[in-house]
Each structure stands twice: as C-alpha cells, then as structure tokens.
Design brief:
With 282 residues, the chain is an alpha/beta fold. It is built from seven helices and 13 strands. Helix 1 crosses helix 2 and helix 4 packs parallel to helix 7 (270-280).
Length: 282
Amino acid sequence: MDQGMKIAAFNIEGNGTFAQDVPAMAEAIKASGAEIVLLPGNSRVKRSAAAAAMRAGAEIDTNVVDVELADGKAVARRWVYRQRILTAFSRAARPWVIVTDPSLFGEICAKTGAAAVPFTAAAGGATRTAVKGVENAGTGGESTIKPDAKLLFVAGAGWTKKQADGALHFDEAAATITGFLKKSGASLGSSKSLVDMPEAAAAFTFMSHMNQVGQTGATPRHQKGLSTCCHGEEPHVVGWRFVNERRAVNLDANCGWAQGKADVVYVADAFAVMAKVNELMG
C-alpha cells in the first residue's frame, strides 16, 4: 500500500432502499476522509452508489477488476468491448469511489491494504422531504399545459426556420403562438426537435420539455388537436393516439400528416394562417 494515500473500504451487503442508502453512503464517504473509497459492486451498491458519490462530491467508476497503487497514484483496470480489452485509467479528482467486481472486492482490499468496514444505513441522516407547496402545471397563471382544455395546439420546428424573406422570425413566432394560446385557452404541445433547439430557447421561454408530445414525451387526451410547422413523423404522432379530431398546417403536401394521420391538412404558411386566426379571434 502507498503510505501517502488514505483508502477506505465499506463492505455493503444485504438489502436496502435507495432513499436510505444514498444519504448513508454519502455520509460514510465524506466522514472517512479517504482519497479512495472501495465498494463491492453488488446490486445494492450499484443502485445507490452513483447518487451517493454525487452527493458527496466524489468521482465514481464501476466494474473495476483491479486497483494498483504506486508513487502516490491509483490505477484502476476494467474490461471493455465485451471483455476483449483490459483498460487502465486513473483520476486526479478526490475523493474517488471505485466500485469493484463483487467477487474481487476482498482481493482488491487486501492488495491495497484497506480493511473493509461493515456499512449500516442507520449512519445516514434524516431522509424526510419537507413539502413547502404544490404547483399544478395544468392550471393558473401563464401555464401552457392545460389537461382540461378541449384543444391541443402543437408547435413544430418549422417555426424556427427561415421564412420566405430568408430571415428568422423567432419573436414573431413566439408572439403568434402565445397570442393564440391566450385567446383560445388551448394547451401547448411541441415536437422534440423544437424543445431540443437551443437557439430558440431565448424566444420560446414559455415552452419546455414538459410540452413535448410523442414517443419520448407526453400522450395528451384532448378532444381536438392542431399541429403547425410539424412534419408528423411517427415518433411524434404516436403521442396523438388519444386525440380524436386532428388538423395540421404545413407547407409540405407530402408531410406525415397527409399520410392518413390527420383528418384535415391545410397546405399553407402557418405564420400567415395563425396570424389570420388571431386577427379573427380578436
């Protein structure tokens, strides 16, 4: 063992809950004052160790099969590419939590000179969360998510594309969308491509990933749906399966909505259509 490096090891066995183990592990890591912390890679440890390391401000690596100490440096080894290549790596950050292969934990502890200490979740602090208030995302104020609304208005990435004049109109798009939402009381949905677009974040402050509709988003249950500037690809449309009446506005007459996914498709410029709708709604 390198005398200049403090190593701690915790023998964690049995069953435990995530809520109890995370604060207990984090407290054990901090209280040990060790530069290297060894843990056995059983199911209990793998479930909670990453969160505990984050809470303790530590770095973590898993599936380690060997640890070697030399010249004040710890070198860990693990297999990659389906155990075809054995890699060796080290970290400068401390503390460093190393989760070993469970069958090699004892051997690695002996090799590094670390005495494994029994772990108990009772060492953790209070885990109760104090609830200070509840805010319903679907009601009140400037909320754009309204589960009880009759209409779902979905905005796609086309709102952020260059328009006929060759320019971008983020502010105009945002004003048109929010204007329609206020006048109609509709709930706002979005395609994944739009909420993932960083350049639109400054103008579309009223929209987040909570508005995303589709395979990796929400599945709204509104009576009617209106899609604008969205191509109607299957990963998105699958989120519409509970929307009975569907209409879409798109400049592409061959978009996904026109392939039997919408009742009515308006082949038109959404900017012009929605501006006229807002005008008619007063």
